Structure formats: structure tokens, C-alpha cells
Amino acid sequence: MSKTARYLKAPWARQQLELLLPLLPAGAAATLWYDNKQLAATGADGADLYEGAPAVHRFPLVLESRELGQVLLRLPPGTDPATASAWGDFLVHSLQGVLEAQHARYSIAQETLESYREMALLQRAVGELNQSLKPASVAASLLKEFADRKDNINFGAVFLRDTEDGHYSVIGSFGHQAEDVCAALQASHLFAVMTGHPHGDIINDLAAGEIAALRSLMWIPLSVHGEHLGLLVLAADRLEGFAAADMKRAQTLVSVAASALRNAQLYAAEKVMFQAFVRVISTAIDAKSPYTAGHCRRVPEIALMLADKAHQAEHGPFANFTLDEDERNALEIAAMLHDCGKVVTPEWVVDKSTKLDSIGNRLDLIAMRFEVLYRDALIERYRATAAGQADAETAYQQCLRQLEADYALLKKCNSGGEFVSPEHVERIQNIAKAHWCNTQGETFPLLEASEVYNLCVQRGTLNPEERKIIEDHAIHTIRMLSQIPFPRALRNVPEYAGGHHERIDGRGYPYGLTRDQLSIPARIIAIADIFEALTAPDRPYRKGGTLSWAIDIMHRMKQEGHIDGELFDLFLAEGVYHTYTEKHLPAEQIDQVDLSRYLDPAPH
Amino acid sequence: MGNTKIAIVDDEVHIRALLEQTLEDLEGEPEILLASNGAEGLALIERERPRIVFLDVMMPLMNGYDVCTAVRQNPDLTGITIVMLTAKGQESDRVRGMETGAHHFVTKPFDPDEILALAHRILQTP
Ligand SMILES: [Fe+2]
Ligand SMILES: [Fe+2]
Q1: Kind of pairing, strands A443-445 and A435-437?
Q2: Residue at A496 is within a domain
Q3: What is the CATH number of the domain that holds A481?
């Protein structure tokens, strides 16, 4: 049914003829043909009138020089032909008036409906296109608008222009062998024309085989404020090719897609810049102390490996754990920044390699004081010998041995390598009671109170105050990261990063959180942190521990409620430790790990 | 094909014209009936028993909710799908519309393709 067929409706036409009939002389009949159909008839045998029959007059119905129908009028014999044409003209005039009015109404309505369509299209497209923050998904949403329609658009592609080198790459396409078609397009001479064209165009008469099997082609540049971002190319397989209306519709969508694409590019650029900042910070932390070199670079790697395994797990405790791209990104950033609080930790604490190491090693001072005592002993020997005392030599030797033994003990305790027993503490306190005096006769204690305090630290080189300073880095990490207005996708970064010294039994720091209060990513970073620290090969004065030693210590940590047992089991069962060490540790650190000692056999 | 009559009840002539023109594109060329207010619309529905009624909410004489309620309370009138036309930004109308027994809602200005798809779907379901 043609559009114009609707302009005249049968009931109305019938009524029009009925109204006319009483005005005509008796015996008259009329019929209206429209759109190849008899729409209405009136009078005796009106339906049977045909052109060329006796006394039948024909009056064509014309709209915009096109004949759409006719009125056939039969008047009684003897009627003046002039009268007949007057009646006919009158009827045709009124019908044509209606046709023209209807035509105008339909055209206006059609135009309005098109605007409605465009508005609806825009409304939907804006929502869908702007939802995406990735160029490829903007392209996918744009192409979907064409691929989904049943109007024979059988190929589509979005080319993105590299802002650096001006090279075009395909970021989305659909259609039969779309990749090959894209390649053929880019290789054709036409592509340069297309990319250089400011507004886009239509080519409906492509030579067969010029570009794959394409016949009709339409392209529209994706540009924002005159900046050329890329190109949308569509091909259709229809006889009449593309029309201006297709172009208009596509342009509407492309204008929205272009700004969405621009946003996606800006977002990506911001993201890259942010990641670069994070990397700079984590490198700075690593560079701060030779004792932690590479730590902030390696912890994220271990953490991501373990997190990916938890994500992939289809059975067991992590079957329901998923890590989307945003969360994975947050985990990586958190792992890179987990020790960022260390920027406020004084280096002399971080690097404190012996107990008397503050700014300069105090053991050297003590050695000097011992040196004074040695000389005093030597002077005493000479004096006693001169005085003829028989035991002068023996007393000297005894004194010397005592001093040497005392100094050796202090030196050993200072290294922090061994546990300091209560007997040792007592001896240190006794040594501290000794004095030395200068040539003015002033006396000084051999060991100062702070030196005794530090030397009596039972384990490691840090005294409780220094330990606190070190531990404070965790709270500083949380404080620093909490000040960053992370976007939604990264809002968990402070929690992930700040929990790496918590223990699942609640005895960790800074908050003493328990397993349930710690997110899985936070627990993952804790494990990665410990494993890296244990196996790190490049520490001054210390060789990296062997793999089996590290695993054994961590297994004990699992049993003690320090680290998450389920994650540690996954770490072992999925071979994360293995993948990591193969890649990063020197061969001498890698030894056999007997997993059967740590993992229960899988239940059947 | 069963009943394919479609009634459009809206006081605004341009909405009637646009809806009519849109629905004329449906295959099978269903008969389209027009009414320009609620009371006239209800009379039309009772007389013609259309398959689908496109019903405006805000109308003189009788508003869309009342027409809808009257249709639903008339046990003789069954198998009529009512599509309510609501103004943009008045999504709360929908709750009330649903309570009075409307099946579908279309926001004005409507998307012609959406109207066509919806009418097509309704006519396909017996
Ligand atoms: Fe830390
Ligand atoms: Fe760390």
C-alpha cells in the first residue's frame, strides 16, 4: 500500500458521493477510483460505470502532477456537457483539496516522526555510549546501532587515529570476514580520501572487487571540536545504496560517539598518568633503603598472581570470589603503595642493622672506651712491675682477657643475630658498672644507659620505640592514602594497602583487625609482602633465604594464625610461589618444596 | 487474524495524527479509531471493543485513569490491552496507571519505532 493510498478513506469518500447525489439530476451515477481501487460509488449501477461507456465523463484526480485516481460521472441523456463538466470539476476540486491537505498533514507528521525517531535514538545512544570508558566499548555500542537494524547494513568498522603517529587502527567491526574487509579498506587508495574528508560521504557505485565485495560505502569522521579522532565506515548490500537519510541518522550517532570516545581517551590518559605517579612513588619508597630494594615492585606481582588464581578458582573457598578489572587495578595500586607510609619513617630506623646503630654506629665509641681501659691496664702493669710487684704480669693478662671477653659479648649482642638470654643481660649490666676516666680525672660509665637498653633488646636490632616507629608506617600508609580522592573504582585502595601487617588472629597492627574485618585483597597483599621479604635476594649483609625455608616459615605463620590459611594453601596448591621464584630468584635460592608436608591431600 | 482494531484516545490532535500515522505502518493495516477525550474514548471502546487502546492520562471530561478503571470494571470488556501515554518526567504516573490496570507505558514524546514494535507484539499475542 502506497503512502498516498491512505489520503482518501472509503467511508469518507462514500459519504461525499452520497451528499452530491441529490444535487445531480435524476438518474445520475458516480464512482470514485483511487489507488487502483474503486473507493466509492453512488446512483443506479454506479459501481458498474466504466470509462468510454455512453454518457460517462471522466475527471482525473491529480496530486503534484501525478494522477492518483479518477471520478466517473454519468448524467442522464441530453444533459448539457458543460453542466456535466461543471459537476465533475466541482467534485474533483473538493477531492483534490482533501488530497492536498492530507498530503501536507502526512508530510508534516512524517517530518515530526523523523524528529521523534532521532530524539529517541539520541536519548538511547547518549546513555549507552557515555556509559563506556573504553574506546573499544564506545565503538562496540556505536556499531551495535547499525548491526542490530534490519536495513541491510552488512559491514561496519570504527577506525581510531593514533594521536602520535596518525596511524589508524580498527577498534571494532562487524560483518562477514570483517577483519579482511578492514585490511582491504586500509590498503585501498580510497582510505586516504576517507580520512582526509572533513564531513564524510557516500559512494554507491563501487566497482566490483575494488574493496572486497563492498558495493555501497558510507563513512563519517569521528571528530570533536575539529579534532579528528577516527572514522566510522559502513557498507550496505542493497540495490539503492545509502541515502541522505542514512547519513543524517549516522551523523547523529557519530556526534555522540565522538564525544564519548574523546572522554574515553581522556580517561585512559588520566589513568596512565595516575599509574605513572603511583609507580614513581613506589620506586621512591624502594629507593629509600637498600634493605627493601625492589619490594614495592615485586609485591604487586605476587599479589596479582595469587588474586588471579583466587578469581579463576571454580571450587573450594574461592569459588565465589571474583575480581573485575577495576578491582584488579585497585589491588595492583594498593600493592604498589602498601609501604608508602615508609616515606615518613627515618632511614636510620629502617636501615638499622645493629642495636647501637643510630646516626653512626655507637659500638665504635664503646670500642674507644675499651681502648682507654686497655691502656689503663697496660700503664698499671708498668707501674706494678716498676714497684716490683710479683703478680704484675698475671694481673695484667687477667684484666686483658676480661676486657676482651666483655667487648666480644657486647659486639655479639649488638649484631641482633641471636637471642639475648637473661644471663647475657646480667653480664651487660655488670659491664655497664665499669668506669673509665680522662686525664683530668673525671670518670664516666663504660656503657651509657641508652646503650645498655639497646644492647639488651632480646630479638633483632630494634628497641621497642624504634619498632613502634617502623610499625607506624602502616598507619601512615592508611593516612596518606585516605587523603587521596580515589574514584569509585579505586575506593578500596586504602583498605587493601593498610591491612598488610594485620594478622588474621587480630594480633597484627595497626588496628588489630581479624580475618572477617579484612578483605581478601588485603589478606592477599599481606601474604605477598611476607613472601617477598623472606625471599628477597638483594639485601645488604644478608643472603636471600631459600624457597623451602620461606615456605616453611610461612606455613608456621599460617598455623599461628598470622596469615590466611586458605589463601596460603591456594598460594601453594596453584604453584604461585613457583611461578614467581622461577622468574625472579637466582637458582641458588630455589630448592625443592615438599608440598605434601603443608597441604592436605585433596578430598575425593 | 483476530481483532486488530486500535483505538487512540488523546485530546491533542497532533498526538492523534502522529500515532495514527505511525500505526498505519503496521502490517495487516489494522483499523484505527480516534477519540479526543475520555468520555468519547470510553464510548468508543465499549462500542468497538478494540484490541489495543492508546490512552492519554491527562484529558478533559474523563482522565485516562478513570477510563482505564471503567474498562477494567466492565466484565463485557475483555482482551483489551491498554497502553498509557504519560508525559516525560511523570514516571510516578506509572504506579497509578498500573493500579488502574494499564499494561504498558509510553512516554511522550514517543519513539515511533518503539510504538510500532509494541503494537506488533500485542497483536501477535492472542
Ligand atoms: Fe609494610
Ligand atoms: Fe611491605
Answers
A1: antiparallel
A2: yes
A3: 1.10.3210.10
